[in-house]
Design a protein that fits this description.
Layout (H helix, E strand, L loop, with lengths): L2 H19 L47 H5 L3 H16 L11 E3 L7 H18 L5 H6 L3 E2 L8 E5 L1 H6 L11 E7 L2 E11 L5 H7 L8 E8 L24 H6 L3 E13 L6 H4 L11
Antiparallel strand pairs: 1-6, 2-3, 3-4, 4-5, 5-7, 6-7
Length: about 290
């Protein structure tokens, strides 16, 4: 698994940790997808359309329901130190390879067909046209996309549209990706791709109806064991037991260690890089990489 996928996975864990640290309810494992109380699409948190934007860049202050801004601005030095350490940990992992193993579930590649290839090419063409204007990231912000945790230093940023994420729970619209993917360069952002989502309850056949599984692999983050409260830093130690890089991957092991087990985190996701030339690069799991076989 490439470095950007690793960064994103650790990033997801940090958001989960932040919610627990501030007394948020744990992410639900319920498959009741009609509830608008859940963060749809990425299923990270509650929908909240009242977030304020940063006065300079329009950055969203936090992912709704998982506000890390308090730990950044808190008068408690230990909270600030913890947030800073998490950010530095994520940044340092950008140059490391991390095999997510039992914590990543991928759809199986199917045999290619001409119809599949044609349908995939149509999706890419539609997406490319729909997001062309978002090469100017300020246009994306003006259209309702919000930067997911801008204060955490990562080279790839997800600009998420919560309305599109909600829509993706019920139907697929190639023109409405849940997130735009940007590479961060100083104060600027370069658009490189997008991410579609689907309900975590979906079967592979249902995912195939949205995007052919002969050209793309959807992925899901699974088997997370969160450490006991107050021990979150244990996820970032060498030979960690907890977290998405941890050795614990079953509920029995997790409960024995005093942790909280989450069989599935977030919804199904698939990345698309429409400006690449080859199909395997367009539908790569990470930018600049190929499909995982």
């Amino acid at each position: 698994m490439g470095r950007r996928v690793a960064i994103f996975l650790v990033f997801c864990v940090l958001m989960f940790v932040a919610g627990r640290a501030q007394g948020q309810q744990p992410i639900s494992d319920s498959h009741h997808d009609s509830s608008v109380q859940n963060m749809k699409g990425m299923d990270h948190s509650q929908m909240n359309r009242s977030q304020k934007n940063d006065s300079k860049t329009g950055d969203s202050q936090s992912m709704p329901g998982m506000d890390m801004s308090k730990s950044d601005s808190s008068s408690d030095p230990s909270q600030r130190a913890g947030a800073e350490e998490m950010g530095h940990t994520m940044s340092s992992m950008s140059s490391k390879h991390m095999d997510m193993g039992p914590h990543m579930k991928m759809t199986a590649l199917r045999s290619a067909t001409a119809d599949d290839q044609k349908r995939a090419e149509e999706i890419v063409a539609d997406l490319r046209g729909a997001i062309e204007k978002y090469k100017d990231f300020k246009v994306a912000l003006a259209d309702g996309f919000q930067i997911f945790q801008p204060q955490i230093p990562t080279p790839m940023k997800h600009f998420t549209n919560y309305g599109y994420a909600f829509e993706a729970e019920y139907k697929f619209n190639a023109l409405h990706p849940t997130s735009l993917l940007y590479e961060k360069h100083g104060d600027d952002y370069k658009l490189v791709g997008a991410m579609y989502t689907a309900p975590k309850r979906f079967t592979e056949d249902q995912l195939n109806e949205r995007i052919p599984l002969s050209v793309a692999q959807w992925h899901e983050h699974v088997n997370l064991c969160m450490p006991p409260k107050g021990q979150e830093r244990a996820m970032f130690t060498r030979n960690a037991r907890f977290g998405l890089a941890g050795s614990i991957s079953t509920q029995a092991e997790c409960e024995a260690a005093g942790g909280t087990f989450r069989p599935i985190i977030f919804n199904w996701m698939v990345h698309v890089y429409p400006y690449e030339k080859k199909s395997e690069e367009i539908w790569a799991v990470e930018h600049g990489g190929g499909l995982s076989h």
